[in-house]
Design brief:
626 residues, mainly alpha, Serine Threonine Protein Phosphatase 5, Tetratricopeptide repeat, 3 domains, 32 helices, elongated
């Protein structure tokens, strides 16, 4: 069989083997629901409704996880177009991408070994090394954090473009037609930029491999014509700069502690680096969300971080001294650098899914050591290890079977994570039999993170379920103080204050909610109602409600509130009746409209029979009688 045909058969066999094993390992992943960032990114993302051909699919809302990542958002829109909002379908596409990445990683390792001219002490074929590395990498249970968690398609898809960029770069160095491969590098890198910013590690990895192979300085590489290969990354870097500035990426990356370059952030990233190194050696425990508060982050020993830092520095020195076996170690830290160096990440300083691609470099290092120590039995050892590892993703995916199960597992493994307690508490309070347990977790979340706005908001909602409106108001106001952009907290505070006849206090909350979400008719109604009860605010209330019914002519509640305001105007009873009657026509089950209609007619006088009929109608609706 000719060499090219034999290579094609081998590659096809690898691909089928890997795809089959990945499908087996993730066979139970589809039962998991949407979790955490999945809701704003997918379920509540209005841009996905545009379909794959709509321009909106490339322009996610500013509050979404997909902001500044148009290709990722488009992939979600394509998913919705294919099978709706079925979380199982989303996950099977993630699983397919995971299998593709294993194949790409195998090719990259094989191509790298060939590009470096082989490794001293290794007589193994590059393709065999690549296969062994791909099998070991794809089986790791750590990857459930990226594959089973739908939103982390960002990590999986970015890895595909990252690996494709490196593979095409390596091919361009040895191909008789390098221009074709350089165009491929440019396309793959641009694709990665539109998925996730951490793809910037690709050109640095390419520089590492190129420098190691040629043993020239960077300027020396450029002088001999290597600059064309690196020029392929320029369009992607330009696009990255544009997306970062247009979506305020720098502001979204900073964490608490007074900016980027400070001791607090350095300590956090050092702890994270040590954790990743530990998890790459022994993948346990796997935690869905490790938290962002000080108490949660303190669980990661800083001495591991110092060990990782020493190892990173030594790997660079070793590569500079020509020790090729240290290239995978240097690549490991380069791939981690975009999210685990000087750039802290808001809300999630430590996350298992960030190990997705760096673990490929770690697996390459392990495989090289095995083949160097025992070349005859190394492949069998890797195969046996992969068989054992392939059973672990399905075991881990059992924790994802329900939202309560995964958050319960997270609380057990990361008891100091406020977000874990808050998320579990939010789910439990929705079940009447477990509401008390849920309140315990929500209060613990507030204790662990007293300055987290969302935790206060969720506890406020729980207090509403407990009929404790006074305490609910306290939490909603605290949330609004902590986060001026939390529209729902402002609206809830305004509503509770209105119910307590404290219109003047409610007005600024209602105005802020309407300012943040001008498309919400109910928020604008709150403004009108607050103005109606504020001294001297009736004319402005009428103006607000007039604009509201103009914008939402089919909104019965808008007509109701306009009628209530008109009823307070001298001589406005007739116009108020028209608005209230129109509200009952739009929504015959709107009890407050019938109650207001009865009250207005009673003030006019002479229509007692109609007043009684409307009051009876309102009372019946309030009792749930249609």
């Amino acid at each position: 069989m000719p060499g090219e045909a034999r290579t094609l058969v081998e590659v096809t066999a690898w691909s089928l083997l890997i795809c089959g094993l990945v499908g087996l390992a993730y066979r139970n992943a589809s039962v998991a629901p949407f979790l955490l960032d999945d809701r704003p990114s997918i379920v509540e993302n209005p841009s996905l409704a545009a379909g794959v051909w709509g321009a909106a699919a490339w322009s996610p809302p500013a509050w979404s996880f997909t902001t500044g990542r148009p290709l990722l958002n488009w992939s979600f829109a394509a998913n919705v177009a294919i099978c709706g909002f079925d979380p199982g379908c989303f996950r099977w596409i993630n699983v397919g991408l995971h299998a593709l990445n294993a194949v790409l990683l195998s090719w990259v390792i094989a191509e790298t070994v060939s590009f470096l001219g082989g490794l001293r002490g290794l007589a193994t074929k590059p393709r065999t090394l690549g296969l062994a590395c791909g099998l070991l990498w794809v089986a790791s249970p750590v990857h459930t954090a990226a594959v089973t968690y739908v939103s982390q398609r960002a990590e999986v898809l970015m890895a595909a473009f990252n690996l494709a960029s490196v593979l095409c770069f390596l091919r361009a160095q040895r191909s008789p037609r390098p221009a074709v491969w350089r165009w491929a590098v440019a396309g793959a890198f641009v694709g990665g930029v539109m998925v996730k910013e951490s793809v910037v590690s690709a050109p640095v990895v390419c520089l590492l491999l190129d420098w190691t192979a040629r043993r020239r300085s960077v300027l020396g590489q450029l002088k001999v014509g290597g600059w064309w290969s690196y020029a392929a990354f320029v369009p992607g870097l330009g696009l990255l700069a544009f997306l970062a500035l247009s979506t305020a990426l720098p502001g979204r990356m900073a964490v608490d502690g007074g900016g980027w370059m400070n001791f607090h952030n350095a300590e956090v990233q050092l702890r994270a680096l040590g954790h990743y190194l530990s998890l790459s050696v022994w993948p346990h425990p796997l935690v869905f969300d490790r938290g962002a508060n000080e108490a949660a982050l303190a669980a990661y020993p800083i001495w591991r971080g110092f060990m990782a830092l020493v190892l990173a520095v030594w790997s660079v020195v070793a590569v500079a001294l020509g020790r090729l076996a240290w290239v995978p170690v240097a690549a490991f830290f380069i791939l981690l650098a975009p999210t685990s160096s000087l750039v802290p990440v808001l809300g999630q300083p430590v996350a298992d899914h960030r190990l997705y691609l760096p673990l490929g470099a770690a697996c390459a290092g392990v495989v090289i050591l095995l083949f160097r120590a025992a070349p005859r039995t190394a492949l069998w050892a890797v195969g046996c290890a992969a068989i054992v590892l392939f059973t672990l993703p399905s075991l881990r995916n059992r924790d994802y079977r329900t939202a309560i199960s995964i958050w319960s597992d997270t609380v057990a493994k990361a008891p100091m994570s406020y977000r874990a307690h808050g998320s579990l508490g939010q789910l439990l309070v929705a079940e009447p039999a477990r509401r008390a347990e849920g309140l315990v977790h929500l209060r613990e979340a507030v204790r662990l993170a007293p300055r987290d706005a969302e935790t206060h908001y969720q506890l406020g909602l729980a207090m509403l379920q407990e009929k404790d409106r006074g305490e609910a108001l306290v939490y909603f106001r605290r949330c609004a103080d902590l986060d001026r952009n939390h529209a729902l907290a402002h609206a809830q505070a305004a509503l509770l204050l209105l119910e307590s006849d404290r219109s003047a206090e409610a007005l600024p909350f209602a105005q802020r909610a309407a300012e943040l979400r001008p498309g919400r008719a109910d928020f604008r109604r709150l403004v009108g109602a607050s103005l109606r009860g504020t001294p001297g605010g009736l004319p402005e209330s009428l103006a607000v409600l007039e604009r509201l019914v103009g914008d939402f002519p089919e909104n019965a509640a808008a007509w109701l509130h306009r009628g209530l305001s008109l009823a307070q105007v001298s001589g406005g009873q007739s116009a108020a009746l028209e608005c209230l009657v129109h509200a009952t026509r739009l929504d015959p089950k709107l009890a407050p409209a019938w109650r207001a209609l009865a009250s207005t007619l009673s003030a006019i006088g002479g229509r007692d029979a109609e007043v009684r009929a409307y009051e009876e109608r309102a009372a019946a609706l309030e009792r749930g009688i249609p």
